[in-house]
Design brief:
Number of strands: 35
Distance between the termini: 61 Å
Radius of gyration: 26 Å
Shape: globular
Protein name: Hydantoinase/oxoprolinase family protein
Oligomer: single chain
Number of helices: 16
Largest sheet: 9 strands, mixed
Pfam families: Hydant_A_C (PF19278), Hydant_A_N (PF05378), Hydantoinase_A (PF01968)
Strand content: 25-35%
Helix content: 25-40%
Organism: Salipiger mangrovisoli
InterPro entries: ACX-like_C, ATPase_NBD, Hydant_A_N, Hydantoinase_A, Oxoprolinase-like
């Protein structure tokens, strides 16, 4: 109607971590962004969602009925694996190949440790049943005699199996045999869930394919139950939008899809944080970023190179490799809630045990009795000058001094000295992990800016950057909810693969074109099933290697190259040379897999730059930096574009506290990002 104001259109991104559930809400018509952090409720998972939506309605005027997009990142899958609280699985495989999981790749997690042990498999050896079936590499097959599957099902049920994984040799070439056995199992035991390896991730290597299917099945009951409860809570809250989930590959999918494709969301929270950071970096004109996401239990690192997020297909989930495409993230068990302790040898250690949200750090006043990194920050004076977590926490520094003092007594040191030692250890642990990451990637971190986010990132990020010799730090406007923002702006993204496994020559080009058409149809159908009706982007790549090499590299291709052998081989040689500083133009090339990513663009709000104005006032507080000294305390809400000041200083805001060391020059840009430049 003429003159009527347009209806609201809210889009919400939510990310749940070990201590907080983060909310980032965009009112699309006005461009207004609201954010919030709510303490998690481990005893009633999902209750934080109701609390957060109610608070957003109360504080920001959110209308639940006007929510058109709801994207959720969750740790329920990865926590199930880390805590080993997943389903009891049976596995059906070929007779004679029951030891695939035990053998794995015959590699130890730490080859330099005499005491290193491989993790116990998620499917124990007594739960693996061999079937007298065979699919040969050329596609010929022999099927199980009548009654063989029924006998295996009976044995699996008697052993207490809750679900069954079917993983047979060469199902990448033809999935029919696995599919037929799966149907037999479903008919014989409808109470059991069944996954076939070829439906989860149909790659050529049997260990990678099998282990990926096992991870999917192991978390399935808990993930499916969680998502069912999530959808019910949204319905109760009056939210009409379909629940979407962030994926390990940095995209999103529907919650309905996530109930079966559980493995795709194992790294959802860490991935969406990197996606959010990349979007913020592009807004600020930064192209080379090291991200630092510190929550209550861990610190996660990732590289953004030339504005692009880096991907891998061998990330670790707990102790197990994940072989599907994922945002490349390195993690270490150091977070704001990481507990400090003195070991039997009198050595101070930090992490990986965390206080979580219950009871949390002692300074939260929620019953914590062990010193954490956050308590050490409070003792040193960096925290405790304002409310935290959007008014939900009132820091109690006296409790922090009490628990850090207990450690100090064990060490024979002063309280502040012990607190600083806790912080130094935390930074040094992260330093080692980042050095390994930069060495693997072959980059010089002096060419990068550090972007700290998460509740703990800005607390320690600038100190880590200084130790790494990184000259610049960029802290976004809302560091505490970057992962939630990442889910909000993420694209729909599905990954699909076909194993080709053939020499690359002109005779193979028709096969590649045929496989690309099949992948394209699968990708388009997937996007349509997700409810996407807009523009579609198809990204093609291939896993290739020189004949005789054991492993392949991923090479980006364009679809029109599939009719041009020289373009494909040239791309492979160039990629191999970039990675290994070597290529063999005369070498025989093998094409192993053809990959396709189907992408439907998500919302991309345009953050207009604000005009520069005078900075607001600040006050002084005492911080222990080699002795107590006064430093300025700035309110983030009072820092306007164009504001400048020098460190040491503190910037306090609703979702985090930014600790700025000495030697840093600070500037606020037009998007309200804080930029630190360290003096030479």
């Amino acid at each position: 109607m003429d003159g009527q104001l347009p209806a609201e259109d809210w889009k919400i991104g939510v990310d749940i971590g070990g201590t907080f559930m983060d909310f980032c809400a965009l009112e699309a018509r006005s461009g207004r962004i609201a954010s919030l952090k709510v303490l998690t409720t481990p005893d009633d998972p999902g209750a934080e969602l109701r609390t957060g939506l109610d608070l957003l309605a109360e504080r920001e005027g959110l209308d639940a009925s006007a929510v058109s997009r709801f994207v959720h990142g969750t740790t329920v899958g990865i926590n199930t694996i880390i805590q080993r609280k997943g389903a009891k699985l049976a596995m059906f495989t070929n007779a004679g190949f029951e030891d695939v999981i035990e053998l794995a790749r015959l590699r130890m997690p730490d080859m330099y440790s005499l005491f290193c042990q491989r993790p116990d498999p998620l499917v124990t050896r007594d739960m693996i049943f061999g079937l007298p079936v065979r699919m040969r590499a050329d596609g010929r097959r022999s099927d199980a005699p009548e009654g063989a599957v029924a006998e295996a099902v009976t044995r699996a049920k008697a052993a207490g199996a809750e679900g069954i994984i079917v993983a047979l040799l060469h199902s990448w070439r033809d999935s029919a045999q696995e599919a037929e056995i799966r149907k037999q199992i479903e008919a014989l035991a409808p109470e059991l869930f069944v996954f076939a390896s070829s439906e989860v991730w149909p790659v050529i290597r049997e260990y990678e394919r099998t282990s990926t299917a096992i991870l999917n099945g192991y978390v399935h009951p808990r993930v499916s139950g969680y998502l069912e409860a999530l959808e019910a809570r949204l319905s109760t809250q009056g939210v009409p939008a379909r629940a979407m989930l962030t994926k390990s590959n940095g995209g999103v999918m529907t919650a309905g899809e996530g109930r079966r494709d559980c493995v795709s969301m194992l790294l959802s929270g860490t991935a969406s944080g990197v996606i959010g950071a990349a979007w913020l970096a592009r807004q600020a004109g930064e192209s080379r970023i090291l991200t630092l996401d510190i929550g209550g239990t861990s610190a996660d690192f990732a590289l953004i190179i030339d504005g692009e997020v880096q991907f891998g297909s061998d990330e670790l989930v707990g102790e197990f490799p994940l072989h599907i495409p994922s945002v490349s993230v390195s993690s270490i068990g150091i977070g704001g809630g990481s507990i400090a302790s003195v070991d039997a040898h009198g050595v101070l250690r930090v992490g990986p045990e965390s206080a979580g949200s219950v009871p949390g750090p002692a300074c939260y006043g929620r019953g914590g009795i062990r010193a954490t990194v956050t308590d050490a920050m409070a003792v040193c004076g960096w925290l405790g000058h304002s409310e935290m977590a959007y008014g939900q926490l009132d820091m109690q520094v006296d409790l922090a001094r009490e628990v850090v003092g207990a450690l100090a007594a064990q060490l024979g040191r002063g309280v502040e000295e012990t607190a600083q030692a806790i912080l130094d250890i935390a930074v040094s642990e992260m330093f080692v992990e980042v050095e390994k990451l930069s060495s693997r990637a072959g980059v010089d971190l002096r060419d990068f800016a550090l972007m700290p986010f998460g509740g703990g990132g800005p607390m320690l990020g600038a100190f880590l950057a200084r130790e790494l010799g990184m000259p610049r730090v960029m802290a976004p406007r809302r560091p505490g909810v970057v992962s939630a923002l990442g889910g909000l702006v993420a694209d729909l993204k599905g990954d699909f693969i076909r194993t080709v496994f053939a020499d690359l020559d002109a005779a193979r080009l028709p096969l590649l074109q045929e496989q690309f058409r099949a992948l394209s149809e699968e990708g388009r159908a997937w996007l349509e099933a997700q409810g996407h009706d807009g523009a579609i982007e198809l990204k093609l790549s291939a896993d290739m290697r020189y004949a005789g090499q054991s492993y392949e590299i991923e090479v980006a291709l364009a679809p029109d190259w599939l009719s041009d052998l020289d373009r494909i081989t040239g791309a492979f040689h160039a990629t191999h040379r970039r990675i290994y500083d070597f290529d063999d133009p005369e070498g025989r090339i093998e094409m192993v897999n053809l990959r396709l990513s189907a992408i439907g663009a998500g919302p991309k709000p345009d953050l207009a730059e604000l005009a520069q104005v005078e900075a607001g006032d600040s006050r002084e507080v005492q911080v222990h930096i080699g002795g107590w000294r006064p430093v300025p305390l700035h309110s983030r809400a009072a820092l306007a574009p164009g504001a400048t000041f020098d460190g040491p200083a503190i910037v306090a805001q609703e979702d985090t506290t930014f600790a700025i060391p000495a030697g840093a020059r600070v500037r606020v840009d037009g998007h309200l990002n804080i930029h630190l430049q360290f003096e030479d």
